[in-house]
Amino acid sequence: MPTSVANRFLLLYGSQTGQAKAIAEEIAEKAGDQNLHADIHCLSLTEKKFFIEREKCVVIITSTTGDGEPPDTALKFVRRLRKKTLPDDYLSHLNYALLGLGDSNYTNFCNCGKSLDKRLQDLGAKRFYDSGWADDAVGLEVAVEPWLDGLWSALKRFLKLPGAEHGGGDADAIMTENKEMINGDSRLNGSTVIENGNKSRSADTQSVHSISNTIPVLTKDLTNGNNQNNLNNSNSAESSVPVCDINQSDCNNSSSHLEQTSSSEKHTDLLVKTLNGTKDNKSNESSMEEKTEASVKVSLPPLSESTLTVPLLPPPFLKIEYNQEQSIDVCDLPRQNDYDFPSAATPVTMATVSDIKTLTSDTAVKKAIFVELDITGSGINYQPGDAISIICPNDTNEVETLLDRLGVLEQIDSCLKILVIEITKKRNASIPKFVSEVSTLRHIFTTCVDIREPPKKALLRVLVEYTSDDAEKRRLQELCSKQGNEDYARFIREPSLSILDILNNFSSCLPPVDRLIEHLPRLQPRPYSVCCSPLTSPGKISFVFNVVETTAECGRTYFRKGVCTGWLEGMSHSAKRDKQVQDTTEKEIVQGIKQLEVSDIKIPIFGRTNQSFHLPDDVTVPVILIGPGTGVAPFIGYLDHRGSQQEAQAETQFGETWLFYGCRHKDRDYIFREKIEHHVSTATLSNLLVSFSRDEQSADAPRYVQDNLRSHGAEIVSLIEEKGAIVYVCGDAKNMAKDVNQAFIDIFSQCKGISSDEARKLVMKLRLHRQYKEDVWT
Ligand code: FAD
Ligand code: NAP
Prior knowledge:
Blueprint lengths: L7 E7 L4 H15 L3 E6 L14 E6 L12 H8 L12 E8 L8 H12 L3 E2 L4 E4 L4 H20 L10 H9 L2 E2 L18 H10 L4 E6 L25 H4 L13 H4 L3 E5 L4 H13 L16 E2 L8 E6 L25 E10 L9 E7 L12 E4 L5 H10 L9 E6 L17 E2 L1 H8 L8 H8 L5 H11 L4 H9 L5 H7 L7 H7 L6 E4 L10 E7 L2 E2 L9 E2 L1 H21 L2 H5 L11 E6 L15 E4 L6 H16 L8 E7 L9 H9 L5 E6 L12 H7 L1 H11 L2 E7 L3 H17 L3 H13 L3 E6 L1
Parallel strand pairs: 1-2, 1-3, 3-4, 4-5, 4-6, 22-23, 22-25, 23-24, 25-26
Antiparallel strand pairs: 7-10, 8-9, 11-15, 12-13, 12-21, 13-18, 14-17, 14-21, 15-16, 19-20
Bound molecules: flavin-adenine dinucleotide and NADP nicotinamide-adenine-dinucleotide phosphate.
């Protein structure tokens, strides 16, 4: 019986996108180093692989999804523990540690972890270690790292094993076992860095702390010497057409999003503030001081002078063998090695693009594009309010530039085999499940791995090993160190630097491509709200999106578009060109200018699980819909649906339908205007309130959706309280959803003459009773 083993603990994870699972796997792997044994399982395997009621010591890592719901994989486990018939002492023998993952941009932050924590307590279980709440809005690692550090000693203390008193965290392991404690002045040994650097480490350290007027020393231009020769690409908007299947897209050039590095970036040198007493430097001191600002490349005291504690170096575990002779047709390879998509409710299907068009004017701040897909025979059934997921590839040009930077461009289409290094020190080493064993670099980097996610600290730690310049090495060490947490968040996470940005910023860093395959996360599908109804568009599904554009600044070394929205936008260009060609001459078509019909384009999609942002079944219930920008998408589906139902049930008195919509300019980005106005004319939409945030208008005109909400406060309160109206909010989570929530609190407080606190509780109650629903995203 595993429970009889003194050093064993049960390790459970509930994961939606794989983050909780990755953390659990990391714990399982490191447990061995701590002389512990983790019996690791997904929460979905409850009563199959584990029985919580038979356990004594458990560690649970769980994420939260949607509007505070458990991940799909945790549903069964959570439901089981929620049963009201369970006695209060049901888990009184159980001791646990729990780490919840969430995103504070959403109202119910870490709701799954928090409710589970409370339920375990209610059932008599005891915490042997404080619960941790990790926030994706500021970077999960901020809370995860210290929580993991303390976990080992807590486990050992609880299991009465030796070693608990030493903490046993990663940091200690580094300092005592691996001696990866890096002193702030280690770069002084580098001859290229400091001319007058004192060779004595201890003397330097003393000086660093005793002399106050330190002088920044210009060391080396990090942006030079980068071997890139194809960064000089044009903007994606005009480049060639992306083709259909994600598997095929890596055999064709898709849109290029890379633009030349901005000049301001190019001339930002690495400035290392350190000790130097020469006259020349002193004379430059004041002007240099003013210019010196920390950045991804520039380090300032105290960090630049700090002793660092860096993560353990992850052992290499994969190697690539190329076989130039063997040919391979990547179009035949299974998509992401046929590895399951956790939120897929249907198999992946290739949907034909039947329409794609821009809804906004050329002068709109953001470009909104509408896509209609033919899903006949796909098996995808949907309701208005559901979302579909789109499996998108990375940009071809970015992939080529990255592989060029890694020095493997020549092998990009060579057949390769990935092998696990036999003598690796990594426990349970295996090829990532979403990568085929036999493949090509182009296929892997285009369709399997995410090359945009900011590199995790473990990857930065690996990069240190492949960086030759001492100053760069030191800065990478800082960025992955405990002491560098703030710099990591500020200069890597917040500006969302990609792996290519990091390599561009640290030109002496040249990691083998194998190391990147070990560490890059899986390329995730992107969800989009459906903006139609199966009643009015049978066999079709449509959605609308804004093209995400990110400029080259704050450490980002190239302009780019969103992975999925940039890819889809490329299709809209192809469609436009086709139309022009159709309108011109037959000769051009024969000459091959006409490359692709819109109906030739197919994209891989799947239906999503766990969706509940639906209209009430009872059509007499009023609905209040709030969706500025593309947040209006699901409500277009609602209106089409209700319109069709109204036609079919002419006798029924339908509930009122209010729509609060907002955009920037009436003439530039009022998307679906005709359709919305049509629904007003047929009385499907009883009240339409639109706000324009950037049009010139009188001072008291509503700017945002919440301004219109406030001016109709009394009617809204009466609709909700007296007629049981349901509120739906869709769109931006970061600002809009929070401000709308506050507007409801203010309205309730004002109209009912209650305090803000009472009004807040009232809105919370509406949420709990599913009378206030959100479908929002950051
Ligand atoms: P990505 O390549 O994923 O880039 C977006 C990311 O880039 C940001 O999250 C951020 O990390 C980074 N980034 C971008 N700009 C900056 C910057 N200036 N500074 C720092 N970082 C930056 N979207 C819609 O448009 N329409 C919808 O109907 C819709 N429905 C959704 C429904 C659901 C249930 C969910 C969860 C999301 C929905 N979204 C919708 C969002 C959509 O899934 C994608 O996230 C969005 O389209 C961006 O995808 P992308 O691949 O183009 O961008
Ligand atoms: P947007 O950028 O949010 O802008 C739409 C309008 O909202 C603009 O007029 C904007 O005004 C205004 N606005 C800005 N801040 C606001 C605030 N605090 N409160 C109220 N209104 C505010 O629109 P979008 O580009 O279409 O973005 C919508 C977001 O929702 C995207 O991130 C998209 O990915 C997401 N989305 C999610 C879902 C979903 O989860 N189901 C569905 C669709 C879209 P100004 O810019 O002038 O300030």
